[in-house]
Structure to design on (150 residues):
């Protein structure tokens, strides 16, 4: 199994988790947390795009508004609508499919080295894809812990 396959499965599990809750629950910040279920979901989508595409000098598949809303260091600033939840779900699956296709086509030709907040230095697209898979699983774990508070 390729690392991108693990990312795909993680995203599918995340979508299933979100499907069990109302939009109000997705927007609720449980006691003891700084964010909510939908922020964690948007964050993994945006982070994958930043790590894999932006660091490779390629166009991202997310908007600047999404980057500003979900990048590292942000927190929920507004309630997300049902339409935005649906858009994020579609984007989550589309972006991992596009990553798989782009890896197969070899579109990642350059990579700007980056040291993550975990202290891991990424020097290639392969390292970024591996790190991203771990990062997504971490946030899925946060979301699974949050659901017990809803």
């Amino acid at each position: 199994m390729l690392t991108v396959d693990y990312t795909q499965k993680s995203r599918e599990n995340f979508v299933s988790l979100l499907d069990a809750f109302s939009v109000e629950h997705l927007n609720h910040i449980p006691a003891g947390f700084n964010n909510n279920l939908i922020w964690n979901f948007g964050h993994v989508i945006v982070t994958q795009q930043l790590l894999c595409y932006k660091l490779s000098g390629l166009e991202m598949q997310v908007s600047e508004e999404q980057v500003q809303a979900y990048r590292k260091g942000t927190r929920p600033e507004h309630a997300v609508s049902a339409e935005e939840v649906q858009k994020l779900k579609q984007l989550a699956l589309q972006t991992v499919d596009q990553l798989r296709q782009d890896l197969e086509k070899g579109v990642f030709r350059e990579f700007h080295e980056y040291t993550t907040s975990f202290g891991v230095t990424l020097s290639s697209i392969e390292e970024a894809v591996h790190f991203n898979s771990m990062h997504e699983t971490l946030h899925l774990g946060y979301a699974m812990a949050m659901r017990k508070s809803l």
Summary: The first helix runs from residue 3 to 19.
